[in-house]
Design brief:
Blueprint (H helix, E strand, L loop, with lengths): L1 E2 L2 E2 L6 H4 L8 H11 L12 H11 L5 H17 L3 H7 L14 H4 L10 H13 L1
Length: about 130
Amino acid sequence: MRILGINLPDEKRVDVGLTYFYGIGRSNVLEVLKKADIDGSKRIKNLSEDEQKRIQKTLEQYKVEGDLRVEVSNNIKRLKEIGSYRGSRHGKNLPARGQRTRSNARTKRGKRVTIGAIKKEVAAKMETKEVKK
């Protein structure tokens, strides 16, 4: 089934399948299903046309997918432009909410870059080059 340009898996329950939308989590799913008056334990393949339309109408009231992604990126861009601390942290790809970075923060900072450590072979070659000069 396809709603708002997103393919939803037919075999999943409705309350799980709706979380495939960017910006719709478990708590928002419960709200959407309550507004659309649909049982969340139903399978997506068992939804009637009317129920699909009600879900679509309810989801159109939320900012999801592209609109939400654009808003988030605009917010981060604004923080960078005004020169805030949070904006600078986003620009440097570091945690923006006060977490420690001396240890941890590996996901945000990326793969380790070794600084100052060189192999014995490389050090020996550098010494021989210095002696030749």
